[in-house]
Amino acid sequence: MNKILINSKVNQKSTQFFTTAAFFLLFAVFSINLRAAHLMQDDLRKTVYGPKKPKLQPAKTPAGQNIKTKKTFAPKTITPSRRATAPKTIIPTRKVRTLKKPWTNSSIRELVNVTFTAQQPYAEIWLNEKNVGLTDKNSVFSKKLSPNTYRAMVKKGNQVVFPPKLINVSAKQTDFKLFNETAVNKTLESKTVIIVPLQPKKSSDESTDKEASAKVREILENYADPSKTDLVSREDWELVFKSAQLGHLQDFTAVQMEAQRWFASGQIELANQNYNYAFAAFKKSIEFMPKSALPFYGLGNTYLADNQPAEALKTLQKAIRIDPKMAMAYKKIGDAQRLLKNKKEAIVAYKNAIQLGYTAPETRYWLGVTLLENERTKEGLQQLKELAESAPTAEIYVAMGDAYGQLKQNVSAVEFYRKAIESKPDLAVAYFKLGSIYLNEREYPKAKEALEKAVELDPDGKTFNRSDAKKKAREATSKIK
Fold it and tell me: What total number of domains does the chain contain?
């Protein structure tokens, strides 16, 4: 009985021990899983929101240490004095950047009211190439300006009625008359206006101005004469420019002198191939004489030189509308139409130029060549024959050889190609065309020699098709026995 009781108690304690152990084991497993879950949650937060920012803990600052500089300093000892003073507390100071006052000029900052008087109402006042306003019905315009030097000008529409003039605006000088006026003198006592004639120039100055004016007029007349246009040189335009710039032109208004100065400048720049400057000069000339065909012609000529035939055509047509009898403008229109592949229109323009008197060799040459290109061979050949009698050149002989080639008259074609070579031995295109005729005539040695000479003189093929020339030369070589 006792043994049974003892065994029962032992079993009961064993059961309690295992139950307690199992409980602790389950608790441990649960704690581990909970910790793992917490760690996984932290990893997920890091993935979505990024790592947590550590909380800033207030730094413990030891006594005598500056927080900003983190440099320690010893407390200042105060020496005893007769008068007791409180100890000073040293506070670190920060340097404050002070803004410097911008430099100012009182003469520029302070504006003055300036009055301009023109000769016409509702005219444009231009300062330094900018339109600043219109005059009122009394021909007056006012504006506040900084004291300075300005380039003043008056325009009415597209026409300059008062040429550019330098004026100095100051607090004492605020009224300006932008027109030519007779010199006047006011007496202080009677306050009456007395007309004072302008001081006559010295005789030497008058003679110089008279000679310069006569020469300039001659140059301008020659340029307008289609039979003498090409005789005007760059040196002539330099004389016109200097005379107009110095004002040595009698019977020319200020506007006319300014117009001629810009026009001559455009001609000089065009001759020097400074096309951008030439464009600007001719456009300024148009402002001063918008009713003249000359500046439009100069501008169109510049477009042609700069390889802009479409713009040239538009500008030259404006010149023709102003002056329907301007022969040289028709010639340049012909050049523009030819470059634009408008052969029929080019022929008409060249004929108009010749009919109006611009019979320069270049005009007649291009008329003949364009007629040949338009398959009007006999008419073109006739033009070239007449030109060859008065002004023969190697280029004319080549064009005549082309005409005879179109007419299947190869003997005559060879004759004029050879004339071209005699006149100009380094004319590669003449050798090429001569060799092509020889190849067609089955004269292979002569063809080979002429074609190889053409390639030698013009290896880049600027005046003929280089590949075609080499191909024909090989063909001629292969035919030689």
Answer: 3
